[in-house]
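Q: Two folds, back to back.
A: First:
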Amino acid sequence: MDRVEASGITIMLSGDNYDLWSESMKSFLIGKKLWRYVTGDFTVPVRPVGTPTTPPTTKEIDDYRVAIDDWDSKNHTILTRIRNTTSRNIQIQLRRMDTAKKAWDYLENRFQATGGMHHYQLLSSLHALKHESGQSIDDFFSTIQSLWDRIDEANIDEEQLRVIQLLMKLGPEYESVRGSLLHRDPLPSLDIAMKEISFEATRFAMLRSPTTDSALAVSSLLINRSSLFFHNNPTFSNPKRILPRFFHLPTQPTSIPPPLLSQLGRFCSLFQRKRYAAAKSLLTSLATSDHPLSTSLVPALEASCRAASISYPTALDMLFRVYADAGLTHPALEAFEILLQRFGRVEDRSCTVYLQALRRSGRIDEAHRFLIRMLDSDAVDVSVYSMAIVVDGLCKNGVLEVARKLVDDMFLRGLAPNVMSYNPMIEIYAKKGDFSSMYQVLKVMDERGVEANVPTYTILVDAFAEIGDANKAEKVFEEMSAKGLLGDIYLYTSLIDANCRAGNIQRAFALFDQCCEKGLEPNDHTYGALINGLCKHGQVLAAEMMMHEMQSKGIDMNQVVFNTMIDGYCRKGMIDKALTLKAIMEKKGIQLDVYTYNTLACGLCKSNNIREAKDLLHVMVQQGIVPNTVTCTTLIDILCKEGDMVEANRLFREMVNKGGKLDVAVKYFAEMKQRNVQANVVTYTALISGLSKEGKSDEAFKLYDEMVKAGIRPDDSVYSSLVSSLHNTKEMRALSHGEVTHGC
């Protein structure tokens, strides 16, 4: 209650008290001058874009930033007020709402009853209201007074009142006809209501006739004789599910709670008026609520559809998609089974949504089995999109051979997969560096008449960029252009990256200009590729200009771009600028990762800010970021510069021992050089000692020469290790045992 009172609202929305809550909340928001954000009168400020020749001015960009900050603040203030005055299950339903208007509209559609059902709920509430033990008379009177006021406002005429009172007194077996009558607008007359209720009573009498008993006997006989078959066949574990429709056992209508009945009636009304998007939204809110029947809506949905005379199979298909979209795969599968068994047809788009849900939840094996079932069934037309979802999932899970077999099987069935099923295989083979298999898939595509598309060529360009082969990347681009395909910004970004990695900065900028001329908007990845290329080749000032251009166009810098610029500044010894960028990252709420800390620590070491570097690494550990090999090698460098050779030697040996192999130490040494961390006497001594023990004297002496050339003075242990390396070589061991024979 404290949370509710703190927000200025004393009513907690639970669902059935929406009218009271909305009146109170609206009054509160008007008083705070926030209501027009809810109505949509105050919309999100639009980012200035300028023209192709005139970019937006600095003032326009600054004004936009002030406006968007203010709008975000007001919008989230309202969202917080709404969430803090709703029950927990409603808060869960609002978690994806990012604007106050969306949240308000959702609650209004979800809980605001209208017409006969609204009147029914008011009178039912009044009828059920009782003075509770311990409740003060004032509180009780306030509650009943509120209901009287709302009933007066509803302006219920005498005949409507009699219809509602009649429906209130009917038993639970009349739930379907009650719902049907209450959801009509306007409410039917008393005569019409009585005719429909009488018809329902006649139907119940027929269900209890001897004819029905005979049908029950026949059904029972069929079930008993088939029990052995059903027992041995798990697919048909419930024999009643596959009986012909006229043998379905009659069941008494299940009592549906009034709030659920009200919402399903509203769903049927939206469905009848072909407002399918709103109907689906309402069904989604029911399926994802914490209502006990939320994951078993099928019986209630059928009763509501039949009462409203709308297509139950179509509504059930929508429920199938709703469950799948919400990740509720088990109730989704139940809906699919009913569609298949009772109606013999399921929409492919619904199956596609279900496959996507399985893939999102990491159950790609189930998705694979479901697709095979779709392929083996005549009830579903399998689309290339369904195939592509499963193939992509199998590839991402690393089972490429299974994916290839599935594509081949589909091709043999005459269901020719399109390029979307081949691209995932090409991508994974490319990332693994298995170019032979990648070319095999491309050859199969060509033989089957499947044309490569722009994403295919983007994958190929990425693959060649990764191995530093800009020439092959350019040839792929030329082949694509010769086919008349227009590259998108992602392909151009990949090609720019390939040329930057190869040092072809001029060509990278030519491609950048080319994509701008074609009307393609560079994104943060495009600028990131150029900035990375410039920094890696020492052109930090040019990279800085690109960074400013990027920001002037309203493109926010991401973590990768910040890290790239910090690395560029550190390489040039511009440590103050690097630290300034770190501060900007923290202010923007961008996470500093191990790469950021390592880069800055290395930069501080190179500029002899040893204490600051060590403190920075300690902060990193305190932030819960796990150190890597670069962190350890940087710390070794810091310890050596502080003169703590014992601790430096211990840390390096600990790193090697953790890896368990000399190769690991060599790898660390190479990584240190790559990160421009200066090797010291500890590093060289430890490596020479390790190589000597392994009998690798040539490599040990090579490191010794490198050590001397670097101006590092070897100590006695280095000379001792070098001498022992000669005795550990295979030739020396053979000489010592007299095993070497000399030719003539």
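A: Second:
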Amino acid sequence: MFVGEGHFGTVVGHSFLPARLQIHQPSSSPRISLILQQHAPADHRLQDLATTPIIDMQTLARLSRNRLRPAIPAQRRNHASVPLARQAARLKIAQIDKNDPYHDPLTDTFGRKHTYLRISLTEKCNLRCVYCMPEEGVSLTPKPELLTTPEILRLARLFVDEGVTKIRLTGGEPTVRKDLMSVVDGLNRMRPFGLSTISMTTNGLALHRKLPELKERGLDQINISLDTLDPFQFELLTRRRGFENVLKSIDEAVRLGFEVKINAVIIRGMNDHQLEPLVGYTRDHNVYVRFIEYMPFDGNKWNHDKFVSYKDMLQAITKSYPDIAKGTDDPHDTSKSYRVSGFSGRFGFITSMSDHFCGTCNRLRLLADGNMKVCLFGNAEVNLRDMVRQGCSDEELLQLIGAAVGRKKKQHAASRPSHSHLSLEAPTSVATRTPPPESRTEMHIHTDFTAIRAKHMPSSTAIGLCRPLVFAAGRSPYTLHSARLFSTKNEQLTHTDAETGKARMVDVSEKNITRRTARAVARVQLSPEAFRLVEQNQIQKGDVLGVASLAGIQAAKQTGHLIPLCHPLLLNSVRVNTLLDAEKHQVLLEALVKCDGKTGVEMEALVAVSIAACTVYDMVKAVDRGAAIVEARVIDKSGGKSGDWSHEG
């Protein structure tokens, strides 16, 4: 409710609020009451609250968005009190705005204003890139469940009205959508309302014929995916022909005056030899070539051996082009730009893994099926399509959008690249993880193939009396084949009774005693300052590495007591080694466990490195609140009926 004397007393940003303000949430929400008293002369102050009109929160939000400016009668102004009144009001209103979800639905709790919206127009693609999706394609969302053009434009206009200034069209491959021109034309009509840039990401295969009309309809920028300048390798990577068409699209786009960027995903051992040729392409072509670090999507079988950091790429490029200068990057740029002296174009790096840019992220994603994602790496989605089709108002849509943005995390799950197949966020550390083919979702790094959600994917998996498994952000659920890592080749879960489904300890009485070994590793990410203190042994609690090693040895011996279904074993030896990685500011831990027994020691090795990692965290947390255990996994074992095993990566 507004409570005041009939005139407005202050202006903050584009919010025009009364001199004295009392806000009430709807009855279904907690009551919020806040009174703001301006420092105005006594005769201008509130005389009677009971005579004041009532305005709810939705109306307040609408007033703020519409930038209403009620007139202030000249005879009632007190110029002497205005500066002091405004100063006090600004402070109070800033406190209100900070906790008011209606004030700005596109600003998250970390103060990031989202002005960039990516809209996926389709899940279809006319390429089958080997690192992206299987040759037969992926299961697609039925057409009736995809957003129609009017629905896309309505939601786009809603975002533009709230401050979005840039919209990028993605896919799948957006050029396969038949009404692409209608979408671009509709977006172009939103420029008077604040939209300044319309761009599109495409593989360029069927683009060159559409470029003149796209230019006429209002498209500004084009990103074209091209991972190699070798036509033969192009066909191998994409499983399709069309290399010449892509080059033709690039040339035509430059000729028509588009701002052109070329996106290249660099994978070690696959196309990392194309760094120098792609940089050389900028000699005579006014384009921006951006090298993208290979990202950890489960479907593309990502591992550390395939990863190339931007520093490694830059070092390789510098050998061929030593005369390189750093470019100027805008605050919200996702890439670090460089230019070779005398070249027409430039090149850069999108460092999603080695040097994330979450702190300045201003991007939201609207998927083809109407779900909105606030982070590329997050699983969380909110469905706007259903709300639109149920006839919800713009205010109701904004409430849902604002709630989703408000829950956005500080940084994505993969921003500290663990390059591992095991995350401590997922309590599946004792499981063999094999992605079921029917639920596998392949991701396209260039376009928003994250729009394609896993089909027929169980929301949780319950085993006996165990709690439902919780999977790490950005990962798909996996089938569990064994409750102890590779302890059997039987498809039946060995720690679950086949008839009752209840948890049980495996009977090993009939097994032979053999020599068993297992090795596990863990990594702890530290800040540069915390790493320096550990390296120089200056942590106040003492010798971090020495204490962590001792803790790991003690933990391995207690595994049978810590893990309910593990057998207590008489261990021959436990060795916990530590190593410091100065480049990545990480503590590396390795445990090697041996015994002569009837069951394996994988869990003893895993517990050893896990507790050692926890000990490191405990000893540095006072100086590094951001310290994180980014990996813990078994990497090899030997002995037993199942034989020897070593991690593929």
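Q: And?
A: The chain is about 25% helix and 20% strand.
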